[in-house]
Amino acid sequence: MSGRLTDFRDFEVWQAARSLTAAVYTLTRDFPKEEAFGLIAQMRRAAVSVATNIAEGAGRRGVSEYRRYISIALALRPNCVLC
User: Fold this and answer.
1) What is the arithmetic mean of pLDDT over 12-28?
2) What is the CATH number of the domain that holds 65?
3) Cα 64 from Cα 27, distance rounded (Å)
4) Is residue 45 part of a domain?
5) Half-sphere exposure of 82 (CA within 13 A, CB side)
6) SS3 3
7) Contacts for 17 with CB less than 8 Å, ≥ 6 apart
8) Is 34 within a domain?
9) Which of 22, 24, 31, 62 is most buried, by CB atoms within 10 Å?
């Protein structure tokens, strides 16, 4: 592959990551308020980062860079499901 990938918003994996983000925000809304700067923040940042890394990887040149960002996104998933 040469050049940039197509629009990342067309990728099913990015759409799934956006759904994950929405689910994490919904789930954490009812967490105890004392977790606002702890577990809630960590889970939300991780969920947002999954979709962000997919989008950023799609904007890079070449398959190896894209794979690197996908690898980062995959590594963040466990942080979204700590509970």
Assistant:
1) 92
2) 1.20.1440.60
3) 34
4) yes
5) 16
6) coil
7) 47, 50, 51, 54, 73
8) yes
9) 24
